[in-house]
Amino acid sequence: MSDPVAKLCEQARAGDREAASTLVSLYYERIFAWLRRLTGHEEDAADLTQKTFSKAWQALGSYQGRSSFPTWLHGIGHHVYVDWRRQRIPHEQPEEEWWLTCATDAPSPADAVADREQAHRLYLLVEQLGEDVRQTVHLHYYQGLTLAETSEALGIATSTVKYRLREAIEQLRSKAAEPKLGAR
Amino acid sequence: MNDAHIESLLRQAPKPPTPPELKQRLISDIRLSHLRSTSDEAAKATPFWLRWTPALSFGIFFLGCLIVLGIQTSQLLELRRENENLRAANSELEPLRQDAVELERLRATQREMEKRGKEGEELQKLKDEVEVLRGQIGELPALQAENQRLRAEHGALTSQASVPPANDPFAKAKEKANVTQCVNNLKQIGLAARMWANDRNRNGLPLDWLAMKKMLSTPKVLTCPGDTARTPAISWDQFDGSSVSYELPSATPDEREPYIVYSRCPIHGSIGLCDGSVQSKFDPARLQRVDGNLKFQNNATTRPRP
Is some CB atom of chain B closer than 8 A to the CB atom of A179? Predict the structure, then answer.
C-alpha cells in the first residue's frame, strides 16, 4: 500500500470524512467499471458500488493493512457481487454489452476495424466463460490486479488463479479460431 | 490469435463510463461516525473490572494453583517425615518383637514347669495313697482268714441246733465274727469312698451308696452281718437301697478331716472315719455333732486305729 493511501485510510478510520471522500474519488470509477462489466447493468453496478463502499466504511475498523486498499476493496466488491448474483434471476441476460457503451470514448484496442471486431468478439467470448474463470479474467486483465492481489480478492490460492487464467486463454484461443461466434 | 495477442487485447479492454451522480452519492453515503475510537471507545465503554476479568481470572486461577501446590508439597513433606519416623520406629520394633517372643517362650516354659510340678505332686500323692492301700490290702488276707474261721464256727454251731443260744458257747464267737465282719465292711466302704474321692481329685467323700458302685466289688458289704432284718443284695443289678444297714451320719465328710465319722453301723455302733480307719470299741460320748458332721473326739490316750 502506498503511503498516501495508507495515510488516507488511517485518517478515514479516525473519522476524517475528507479522507474517505478522497478514497472514494480515487477508486470509485475502477470499482464501478469492474462491477459494470460483471453485471452488464449500469444501475445494478451503481448500486453494488454503493454497497461495496458502504461495507468498506463499516469494515474499515478491522482493516489491518495487510493487503493494499484497492485489493481489499475488490475483495468486498467480490462478495457483494456474489450476493447479488445469488439473488438474481438465473440466465438473465445483460441489457447491453458494456463494450458498446464505451466504444467511442474508450481507447481502442486497435485502429483497424478488423481488430476492433476481433476485440469485441474476444470480450463476448470472455462473458461466455465459466463464472469463476470469468471473474478471474475480469480482475486480472480488466482491473489490472496482480496474481497475488487477484487471489486475495477472490479468496483463493495464487496457483488457482494461474490455472484459471491459463484455462481462460486456452478456451478463448480455441473459440476465437472458430469461423463464427456462438449465438449471442 | 496467439496468447500474447489475447492477453494484450484483454488488458486494453475499454472502461465503461461512470454515471455522473455516482461519486456524489458515494460521498454523501459515507458513514464514519461509528469508526471513531474503535478500540479506545470500546475500552472506555467497558467497565474496569470487566476489562481486567480475564487477567484477574487467570491470576486467581494461578494463585489457587500455587496454594494447592504449596499445600500438597507441605503434606508431602509431612508424609515423608512421618514415613521416616515410622521407619525408625519399625527398626526399633524388631528387637522388642524378639524380646516379646522370648518372653512368651519363657512363660510357656514356666507354665509347662508348673503343670509338671502339679502332676508330680499329684503323682506323689497317688503313690502315697497306693502305699496306704497296699498296707490295707495286706490286712485283707488276715481278715478273710478270720472270716473263714468264723464261718466254720458258725457252721458248727448251726449243726448243734439243740443247744440254747444263751448257753451257746459259739454265740459269742458268732457275734464277735459279726462285729469283725462289720468292721471289715466299714473299712471297705471307707476305702471305696476315698478311692472315689481320689479318682475325682476331690476331698469330699460321697454321700450316695450308688456313687461307690464301681469301687465296691459287691453290695453285700453294705449289709451288716448282724442285721437280720435285711437281706444282702447279691449284685448291683438287684441293689435298691433296702439292703443297706449302715448310715452316713455326716453332712460334709472330708478326707482331710480324719475325725469326722463317715459311716456308722447302727447295730454294732462301729464307726468308719474319713481317713479310712474304723473304731469299734469306744465311749459313745466321744461322738459329737459339729456343724452337721458327727465328729469323733480325738483323745491322746485312744487314737483311732488306722
Answer: no
